[in-house]
Structure prediction request, 594 residues.
Amino acid sequence: MYESIKGLKRTHRCGQLSSANIGEEVVVMGFTNSVRNLGGVNFINLRDISGIVQLFFNTDTPELYEKAAKVRGEYVLAAKGVVRARGEGAVNKDMATGDIEIEVNELRILSSAETPPFYIEENSDVKEELRLKHRFLDLRRPDMQRNLIMRHNIAKIAHDFFDENGFLEIETPILVKSTPEGARDYVVPSRVHSGKFYALPQSPQLYKQLLMVSGMDRYFQIAKCFRDEDLRADRQPEFTQLDMELSFVDMDDVMELNERFMQRVFKEIKGIDIKTPFLKMEYAEAMDRFGSDKPDTRFGLELKNLSDIVANCGFGVFTGALENGGSVRAINAEGLGEKLTRKTIDALGEFVKTYRAKGLAWIKLNPDGVQSPIAKFLTEDEMNVILERMNAKEGDVIFIVADKNNVVFDSLGALRLEIAKRFDLIDKNRYDFLWVTNFPLLEYDEEDGRYVAMHHPFTCPNDEDIPLLDTDPSKVRAKAYDIILNGVELGGGSIRIHDAQLQEKMFGVLGFTKEQAWDRFGFLMGAFKYGTPPHGGMAYGFDRMVMLIAGLDNIREVIAFPKVQNASELMSNAPDFIDDKQVEELHIKLAEEE
Prediction:
């Protein structure tokens, strides 16, 4: 039997009380965190989202004392009493309210509770599957609540900042037309329009551009987006974007605004002053130096190109890669010679194979000279020039990959990160922001035999590269920019195409016929005919941003009810079957299972 709170009004949250409240009569409500019976004295630690406070009972009030003795973990209580200082020697310095307690004169048990399947405690080591199955309990844990409070605070800063900078918050539709180009859409059958489907938006891209055509000038939204793709630790099938679009701007305008936004977030959330302007690096330089378009610049291990040195060497692996249009590149693990044993080096060789590299060559500079399985294929001069280019010295280990450029970049880019993590080369208290710019507009899809947009089909090419759309599309650079933090892409954007003819040409380069382009994107291209401001914008992966600022490496830790690897939600068992009647109303037929 539960008791009502009728007649009681909560005066304080548990964690808000302090010695300043001594002598006051207060009412607190929350969950039972722990119970201690010391014989004649009962203590209950009461927890709510703000913290914990200790309730005190003794045999001077026998009814209350007996009632408190019946309380178990996670019971929901209301307690009225007087705040008092704890006795000498009873102060708990590990609790924010550890110098006070409430001497209770009224206790109500609002709800009893079964024993939870795991302890409600900080930094639980319970299996994630069990936590997600009982997410409503997992979210009672103080560290999880702090994550969601931080998420709320970052969202509030965003609302305030963009409002102060002249943006309107405008919602865009969730049920939209499917325009498949990129990740797979989630589709929703229409009951009213038989045989037709909505899609869930992968982003508000087309709508926010139409808002610029509408003269809204500056738009932002914290928007739900959906992609039916395989998941990773930092991906979800439904995710949140902090989305924005601005009229009459160039790339520098968008970057400067977002640098100020990041400054504001880090100052208010972390108390850290972020220096601006952020470093800018062209895509080609990022790939050449770091093997990645989202480089972590907190440590060295930069790539060096050895192709010219080994072009005529006697090692077929190197010369073969060059003959096939690839390259030979290397990183120098400086001073790690003693730690990089032969066993560790072999393990790193297996590691790069997961990035399609066929193998990992290495050169180790020991006190007694060079040690390398490829030394016999190189002349003394070739070896010396390699060592010079790599600035190698005693105690260093050079790792070399030869293959197609994309394989070399992927494998060495991943290897430098792996070595940095294994040997603690990364300053965890450092925040390196970086803009990566001048991406290729297009990349060639060997499977489909056509060009695809590296970002999306509405990205504007660099003005001077537009003629190359007709002659050599692979060399066209985009007015695109990604914001990187410590090797993670926080967000990205571009200046958009605002000319109907250029947009039509872009669709043609991507392999669309004129009819296909107008069928899928006619509502955008038609709008462009009525006067379109130059515009651009960007979007942050909001979940990922919160994850990074919170110092976490799993995006599910900052989402209240996340999905797991197979896109299911363990707590509610979604997705699930629906009634035959619902299927029938949607005018669809389910395929028989084999």
Q: What stands out?
A: The chain is about 30% helix and 25% strand. The mean pLDDT is 94. The radius of gyration is 30 Å. The longest helix spans residues 142-164.
